[in-house]
What we know:
The structure is a single chain. The chain has 209 residues and is of the alpha+beta class. It has three domains: 51 residues; 65 residues, Roll (Ubiquitin-like (UB roll)); 67 residues, no CATH class. It contains five helices and eight strands, in the order H-E-E-H-E-E-H-E-E-E-H-E-H.
Amino acid sequence: MSQRFKMVCAFIFIAVLSAGLSYSFLNYQQHREAAQGARDRLARYLGLESKGTGNSGFQPGLEDGNSASTVTLGRDTILVMRTLYECGHEETETRQVDAEMVGLSREELQKECDGWTITEFSPGRVTMVREKAGMAPKCASTMHVGIKDNHVAIFYGTPEARCRLKSVTQIPVSGIPRAERMDLEKGIPVANKEQLLKLLEGLAESRAR
């Protein structure tokens, strides 16, 4: 076999191999473009095509269009304001949001309400909590008489929601009639100072009888 014949055969082999590789590459490109086109059409159909970027496809974190930063207060949003007092009781105010709050996001509302902590935030309901020293106003404005260390004592608050001890009297519980002692164990509410003094006088006299 002559050298020239070998060279011709080698040239033909290289030409055939190059043609095969070119065909495979073109076929791969066509499949890739077809697949990309299908993905683009699907993205447009589902409304997931990104805007202003030139790229198509699903954008993580944007699928619901309602992220936490986009939630704002509406006219019908209910505002719940809880104040927790040092005495252990709380007061709650529930109302619709003020007109100037409409449209605020959670971050914007938090900046406006210094001293409050937002614990719940949704278009329908917002809950804010704060802590405050001292007694709740309802506790400070009500009193009842009970028992402390076997003596008649005066407490802030109501019998159902006893607050702090105000003072312990010098009236021992021993010797007080059983019915009145049972009332003291439950707690006897008093409306004012005059009623309190009258009750204490009656308890002291009941021991003397």
